[in-house]
Amino acid sequence: MITEKEWNQAFEHIVPTLSLGVGALSVVLATMALTRSSPLGQRVYYQDGQYLVSVRYPGQWHDLRDFVQPDNPDVVAIYSQYGPDPWALYDFVCRDISYKRDIGEFWAFPSEVLASGTSDCEDTSNLLTSLLRCGGINAYTAIGDYQGYGHAWCQLNGQILETTYTSARPVPDPQNYCPYCLFDDSEVEELWPGALGEVFRLGRDEEAKLSLIAEAIGEEVPPECPSLWPPLVAGLVTGGILGTGFAMILQKGE
């Protein structure tokens, strides 16, 4: 039979330990969310004809083709309003989806992009590819290199459609776009063996890349919507700190 005194003594040790554990777990989850990598740090995995990438939640793998969804009802609804003109679809994505960078990397599906109205280059490119493919137009999402930085864009009959622009326009510097991998909802083409894995090893500096893109068209960098990741991470870490502080208060009150 445990006495009240023994229980209180045990409680004094358990509560701070649990709170510290919660705080540590919060930091770990936040770090995993920021790095967007699998437990082994692997970002690309080839299996049975699939090109699997870890670009959403930790431990999740998706085939590249999963992110192009021409039959998605939300995509079909937008296509019915702006299609079949490819330029009108391109202009819709540029004007209606505001740029928002990722911290780490998180790929959104077309419905998520349309619902939020904000996203970064690979998400808007996949949305535009989905819209074009909805009308039977032969388009691809390209992921590769823009002046040394990892980037994504839509490719239509060899023409580059840059979805970070604020309106549809021709790309003035196509020589600066170097595709590594092209994909749509049915096929993936690596331009050389292992090219997909190399994409995720390219430099990531969204501010510098956007400045170069804006410089190419002679405009200022477009306004950016704030990312949701910093408040989320801050909340997780703060939760752990507050939990620890609450435990200390309980301990002092005994």
Rg, Cα atoms, Å: 23 Å
CATH topology tier name: C8orf32 fold
Shape descriptor reads globular
Number of strands: 10
Strand line-up across the major sheet: 8-7-6-9-10
CATH architecture: Roll
CATH class: Alpha Beta
Major beta sheet summary: 5 strands, antiparallel
Strand-pairing-aware structural class: alpha+beta
Fraction in beta strands: 15-25%
Supply the number of helical segments: 8
Nutshell version of this structure?
The protein has 254 residues and is α+β, with helices and mostly antiparallel strands. It has eight helices and ten strands.
Question: What would you note in describing this structure?
Answer:
- This protein has one domain (32-234): Roll (C8orf32 fold).
- Helix 1 runs antiparallel to helix 8 (229-253) and helix 2 packs across helix 5 (121-134).
- The chain contains eight helices and ten strands.
- The chain has helices at residues 4-35, 73-82, 86-96, 110-116, 121-134, 195-199, 206-217, 229-253; strands spanning 44-47, 50-53, 62-63, 98-99, 118-119, 139-146, 149-156, 159-161, 177-183, 188-190.
- It has 254 residues and is α+β, with helices and mostly antiparallel strands.
- The protein has a five-stranded antiparallel β-sheet with strand order 8-7-6-9-10.
- The two termini are 22 Å apart.
